[in-house]
Amino acid sequence: MESGKKRRLKRIFRDDNRTVIVPMDHGVTVGPVMGLIDMQGIVNKLLLGGVDAVLLNRGVAKSVDTGNAGLIVHLSGSTKHCPDPNSKVQICSVEDAVRLGADAVSVHINVGAKHEDRMLATLGNVACKCDDYAMPLLAMMYPRGPNIKDSHAVDVVAHAARLGAELGADVIKTNYTGDAESFKEVVSCCHVPVIIAGGPKMETAKEVLQMVSDSLKAGGAGVSIGRNVFQHENPTKMVKALLALIHRGASVYEALKIIGESE
Questions:
Q1: pTM value?
Q2: What's phi and psi for 212, nearest 5 deg?
Q3: pLDDT by residue (tens digit) across 83-114?
Q4: Which CATH fold topology does 3-258 show?
């Protein structure tokens, strides 16, 4: 990997090659959800927790101070009102992200969706442009579509992750497969770091932290978790708990204590 990408990735990944990213691009897809009304306010809470990086859409990135956290600018979008919400289109360019001072960009691909071909073309084109600018590329690779019976099944998750790596992504974000043994298959087939998505809001923090802990045992490189952080009653403490798990090797029990909960 060229030195420019390495330097930028060091602003997102720590020396242990792991990261805690909080994505907050939901305003395009579902609108101003709870936790993402005051964008500077929530970013400030995440910064207090020591978050490694935040992921934002271009318009928010223009107006929000992300402090010393890495900045990932999201290039894809669609809304829940679209006839096919799984069809993501490019809504921002790598050049725009460069002008915003981004440390990386991200694209969203739904593998198995009706317009998968268009999304893959976008991924390939963005990957080439990222190489031109030495800009790291995070690919959100999700198995979603009419032929996907289980979006967490190891075979489809592994295929989606490998697909992103094959087409030039520097980091893969995908679904957790439910247990460390199966997720190890996903990680082992990728030559780039694999981080897990948080998915829908979970009932308890313990569920989130256990999932993260198990993914690390399988060789995962960290997380990109949104709702389960910014909709937590104390996002600052939730970030600190994730940092303890991912960077300091804390147990789930120790991480729960950080947010004031017990098993």
A1: 0.97
A2: -65, -45
A3: 999 999 999 999 999 999 999 999 999 999 99
A4: TIM Barrel (3.20.20)
Q: Which residues are catalytic?
A: 25, 142, 173
Instruction: List CB contacts of 148: < 8 A, sequence separation 6 or more.
Output: 111, 112, 156
Number of alpha carbons in the 13 Å side-chain half-sphere of residue 122: 27
Bridge-based pairing state of the strands 89-90 and 76-77: antiparallel
Mean pLDDT of 178-199: 96
Residue indicated by tokens 């979008």: 77
Q: Give the chain as a 3 state SS string.
A: CCHHHHHHHCCCCCCCCCEEEEECCHHHHCCCCCCCCCHHHHHHHHHHHCCCEEEECHHHHHHCCCCCCEEEEECEECCCCCCCCCCCEECCCHHHHHHCCCCEEEEEEEECCCCHHHHHHHHHHHHHHHHHHCCCEEEEEEECCCCCCCCCCHHHHHHHHHHHHHCCCCEEEECCCCCHHHHHHHHHCCCCCEEEECCCCCCCHHHHHHHHHHHHHCCCCEEECCHHHHCCCCHHHHHHHHHHHHHHCCCHHHHHHHCCCCC
At residue 263, the pLDDT reads 61
Q: Mention every residue, 6+ apart, whose C-beta is less than 8 A from residue 26.
A: 33, 36, 226, 227
Gap between the Cα atoms of 81 and 50, Å rounded: 35
**Burial grade of 186 (CB within 10 A; 0-12, 13-18, 19 or more):** buried
Residue indicated by tokens 């993260």 = 212
Q: Cα–chain-centroid distance for residue 240?
A: 17
Backbone angles phi, psi at 205, to 5 degrees: -65, -30
Q: Distance (Å, rounded) from C-alpha 22 to C-alpha 56?
A: 9
